[in-house]
Write a structure and sequence with these properties.
This protein has 426 residues and is α/β, with parallel strands linked by helices. The protein has three domains: 106 residues, Helicase, Ruva Protein, domain 3 (Orthogonal Bundle), CATH 1.10.8; 175 residues, 3-Layer(aba) Sandwich (Rossmann fold), CATH 3.40.50.300; 102 residues, Winged helix-like DNA-binding domain superfamily/Winged helix DNA-binding domain (Arc Repressor Mutant, subunit A), CATH 1.10.10. It is built from 17 helices and eight strands. The strands form two sheets. A five-stranded parallel sheet has the order 2-3-4-1-5, sandwiched between helices. α2 packs across α3. The protein is globular. The N terminus and C terminus are likely disordered. The structure holds a DNA duplex (22 and 22 nucleotides).
DNA sequence: CGTCCACTGGAATCAAGGGTCT
DNA sequence: AGACCCTTGATTCCAGTGGACG
């Protein structure tokens, strides 16, 4: 993206086997790699004491077999929600090692989002006996639910069910699943179930029906974004165990913190930045990690994220994106902003060349909006008065990525193809 | 002030593919 | 196996609209 952050040339290394250069250059910059992984849960979570205490206070009764309130936790990504919960889990296990009084179940709804699979997932974490486990497919929702309920009731414990990324489950099937989970207690005679929902969608509660809302959110805890100062502390703590002393340039940690605080206050992002910067430095055989490495890491993260999105896009969206790129680079048109109509005619042309089905303009409008939401393009509705009302579309990706798309082999036939001259339009 | 363009975006509907139920 | 969802992507239809122009 920017030319000034070039990493120094790789140093020549005496070759013995093909691995020698890598092992030789893997100088001990990184002492402990695990610590920088975002799945790592540190012993202490800096700046989350208050939240931990709050949650601990709420769920403490479970250790005496009393049902704690349901909790709804909101906060943006990378504010330590999942980390805090894992921490809580660990502490809970310490207090009740044999799960005599309470049992902790964690489900990530981003991975398992269908209502049945959520129940299935919960059940199989709870049900220990192998022969009683619920088969992966084949059972109806009701049957799974009934089995789960009867099993839970046979246990005489408090079950704490943590639903991470709870909004993902909501999108699929409304709040039905939450209804079943929260009403479970009315059927249960011995055991109790309490739910901890985690979401990074602050508007999530508005989507729920009032009934569910009050049940699920008996207690609400909001995780605020980290400030740059707090991010610095977090990074510093990890860096202390991750790196040998003196390896990190003074400015690196404040710089990482500043970058990620600026666009989210996301600790995960900050850690990624640091880890990748370290990786790059290490691979390059450098002895110190500097701001330049961080800059490099930053652009690589960005590139990876966007190209990943584009790679997994459906074909039609790719063609639409290609049309926008072509329109922008076309000698005859040559403008950064274009209308839906212009995109559509280019699109139909490209479809013709590639032998793809041409979709309606209505659908293309939708695809354009989708691309807009992904942040790949900028589209705002604008009125040209007498000349109609349309979306004004602008590309919003770097040339590296444009390059990458253009090289995609599905667009091969376009390489030698010159678009027709546009006859109409201003 | 009304007209009228070139679309937007909601709603209903369909078709295909996948999983589920019996 | 065959009937029956449910989801997703697409189509059809259409009412609605910001603002330059006359």
């Amino acid at each position: 993206m920017n030319g000034e952050d070039k990493i120094p040339e790789k140093k020549e290394v005496h070759r013995e086997s093909i691995f020698t250069p890598f092992t030789a250059k893997r100088n001990n910059l990184i002492k402990n790699r695990n610590v920088l992984q975002n799945t790592f849960i540190p012993i202490q979570l800096p700046h989350r004491d208050r939240e931990i205490e709050q949650i601990a206070e709420i769920i403490a009764p479970s250790l005496q077999k009393f049902k704690p309130s349901n909790i709804l936790i909101t906060g943006r990504t990378g504010t330590g929600k999942t980390a805090v919960l894992s921490y809580i889990e660990r502490e809970l296990k310490k207090a009740d090692p044999d799960e005599e009084n309470c049992c902790y179940v964690y489900v990530n709804c981003e991975v398992v989002d269908a209502p049945t699979s959520i129940l299935y997932n919960i059940s199989n974490q709870i049900i220990k006996e192998h022969e009683k486990k619920i088969p992966f497919t084949g059972w109806s929702f009701d049957k799974v639910y009934e089995t789960l309920v009867s099993y839970i009731d046979g246990e005489d414990k408090v079950f704490i069910v943590v639903l991470d990324e709870i909004d993902m489950a909501f999108q699929k099937k409304g709040d039905e699943i939450f209804y079943f989970l929260t009403t479970m207690n009315e059927i249960l005679k011995k055991s109790q179930v309490s739910i901890i929902g985690i979401t990074n969608n602050t508007k999530f509660t508005e989507l729920l029906s009032t009934k569910i809302k009050s049940r699920l959110g008996e207690e609400k805890i909001i995780f605020t974004s980290y400030t740059p100062e707090q991010l610095k502390d977090i990074l510093r703590e990890r860096a202390d165990t991750a790196f040998n002393p003196g390896i990190l340039d003074e400015a690196v940690i404040p710089y990482c913190a500043a970058i990620s605080a600026q666009d989210s206050g996301d600790a995960r992002r900050a850690l990624d930045l640091l880890r990748i910067a370290a990786d790059i430095a290490e691979r390059n055989g450098d002895t110190k990690i500097t701001e330049a490495h961080v800059n490099y890491a930053r652009s690589r993260i960005e590139l990876d994220a966007v190209s990943e999105v584009i790679k997994t896009m459906p074909m039609q969206s790719k063609i639409v994106l290609m049309s926008i790129i072509r329109n922008r680079d076309n000698e005859d048109i040559k403008k950064n902003r274009m209308t839906t109509g212009e995109v559509y005619s280019m699109y139909s042309e490209i479809c013709g060349v590639l032998g793809h089905q041409v979709l309606t303009q209505r659908r293309i409008t939708n695809i354009i909006s989708e691309l807009d939401m992904l942040g790949i393009i900028h589209a705002i509705v604008k009125s040209y008065g007498r000349n109609g009302r349309t979306k004004e579309i602008e590309l919003n990706i770097t040339n590296d990525i444009v390059e990458m798309i253009s090289r995609d082999e599905v667009f091969k036939p376009l390489l030698n193809y010159k678009p027709k001259k546009q006859t109409t339009l201003m």
